[in-house]
Amino acid sequence: MTYIVNDACIACKFTDCVEVCPVDCFYEGENTLVIHPDECIDCGVCEPECPADAIRPDTEPDMEKWVEFNRKYSELWPVIISKKDPLPNADEMNGKEGKMDLFSEAPGEGG
Question: What does pLDDT average to over the chain?
């Protein structure tokens, strides 16, 4: 099992999760985060930390696409281990549906 980040993170990018991760398996894109599925140790401490409810276990239905999405971008983006401010419109975007059209493949700064 692993945890994944889904599209609920897009345009929010809360980073409360990265501070509690014991193995530093979060990676930062321009407007979202992902978890490297091979590095995640399935501890689950990140899941309750996410204000956007964007972190889910891969055992939920239809998670295969998210595992591959997280794998792809975690291999392209820099690791993030420190909490940062969320995106400026995070509170407004939190809970909105259908945010994949806002997704950016650009890497974040990491750190």
Answer: 97
